[in-house]
Amino acid sequence: MGLFDRISRVVRSNVNDMVSKAEDPEKMLEQAVIEMQEDLVQLRQAVATAIASQKRTQQQHNQAQSESNNWQQRAQLALQKGDETLAREALQRKKTHTETANALKGQLDQHSTQVETLKRSLIALEGKISEAKTKKDMLKARSSAAKAQEQLQGMVGNMGTSSAMAAFERMEEKVLQSEARAQAAGELAGSSLEAQFAQLESGDVDLELEAMKQQMLAGSSQPQAALPGEAAPQAQTQAPKDAAVDPELEDLKKQLDNL
């Protein structure tokens, strides 16, 4: 491949790319409809011209046929009067007009065929223009919707990387951290409260244990019943209040007060 061919291909590809990028669907559709309407105007003018030509040919044909009939009648009249020379001349004129009428009849048939063809083309073009307008409106609506969707997606994409969205993300992270700290503090407070109640419950157990000890000591200090036949032992003097228990009980009370 020669250098100029390569350059030409590069230029054409760049031009095609620029043209493709410059094509706006809405403007292109509008321009296409305008061009079709221009073709419709030209076709209507062609139909009108063909119909006018058809009418002129029809008039010329009718006139030539009328002249042929007139010269036919004159030939008959001259023959009736015994003038064969004049009758022959009239028939010659009739022949000329008849040939003209026949030629015009051929042209008239051609004009009629042409007019019918142009009329059918005109009707078809009008239908295509109507269909093109409907499609144009639909495609314009779809193009507008696509542009709006593309713009919205672009806005969403920009929002994802913008400083505003980054600020929202930072604030969300801070809120999550605050919630985590609050939850941890709540758990710590709950565990401390449980420990306090456990300590109180253990104090109650100690008190109950001490009370059981006192009951056991009191039971062991009561005099035993005398056996039958034996004299009841002399009741011992009631022992004074246990001096070892009271200080311990006082210490326990102080510990409870200090909790």
From TrEMBL:
Transmembrane segments: none annotated. InterPro entries: PspA_VIPP1. Residues 214-259 are annotated as: Disordered. Keywords: Coiled coil. It comes from the Bacteria. Belongs to the PspA/Vipp/IM30 family. This is PspA/IM30 family protein. It comes from Myxacorys almedinensis A.
